[in-house]
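Budget justification aside, the reviewers requested a transparent look at the raw inputs and outputs of the sequence design task funded under Objective 1. We therefore reproduce one unedited record. The lines immediately below are the structure tokens for a 194-residue chain.
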């Protein structure tokens, strides 16, 4: 198993990037949440990885944080959810917002993510509820519950306004750290979109 890759970014074309290290170029697929944190082409990067072996290919997935990788590994164990859907999910929602959606059984927020239908969202909520409790760092324990709830509600509102899930996630991250009400998060995100 390849646990991480450190090297120079040779190319970036979402969802794929190439990292050169030790004379080898590793093609890595990564969620958009990781792409937002990547340095420019030619710069040094370290990514946590997960290798998926199929009959026809070996695919390396890269993540900026351990929480993203742990959630990815847990998602691909859900019936009917493969690496592509798990990658789409991580591209469309933060780890904390996903945990909040599962805990609050918010099927509607999950169905706004491209590739996630109602049945898949319902299956994710049922199967991930117990797994999230077993995974440290995914249940939002580090942040106050009201902040997670406000972020989830703001995410849902931005998607309802027509923003793509990845764009809504980016706008909420740009809204700034700290505990804000749902209305304040939406206002800050919309100001950042202008």
């Amino acid at each position: 198993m390849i646990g991480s890759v450190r090297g120079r970014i040779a190319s970036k074309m979402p969802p794929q990037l190439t990292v050169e290290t030790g004379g080898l170029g590793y093609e890595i697929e990564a969620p958009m949440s990781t792409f937002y944190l990547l340095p420019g082409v030619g710069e040094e990067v370290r990514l946590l990885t997960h290798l998926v072996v199929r009959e026809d290919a070996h695919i390396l997935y890269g993540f900026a944080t351990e929480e993203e990788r742990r959630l990815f590994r847990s998602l691909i164990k859900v019936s009917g959810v493969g690496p592509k859907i798990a990658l789409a999910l991580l591209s469309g929602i933060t780890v904390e917002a996903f945990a909040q959606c599962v805990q609050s059984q918010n099927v509607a927020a999950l169905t706004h993510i491209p590739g996630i239908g109602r049945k898949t969202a319902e299956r994710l909520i049922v199967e991930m509820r117990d797994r999230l409790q077993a995974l440290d760092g995914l249940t939002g324990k580090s942040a106050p519950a009201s902040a997670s709830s406000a972020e989830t509600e703001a995410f849902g509102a931005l998607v309802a306004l027509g923003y793509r899930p990845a764009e809504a996630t980016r706008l909420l991250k740009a809204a700034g750290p700290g505990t804000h009400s749902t209305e304040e998060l939406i206002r800050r995100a919309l100001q950042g979109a202008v």
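The chain has two domains: 4-63, 67-194. The chain has a mean pLDDT of 84. Computational costs for records of this kind are itemized in the attached budget.
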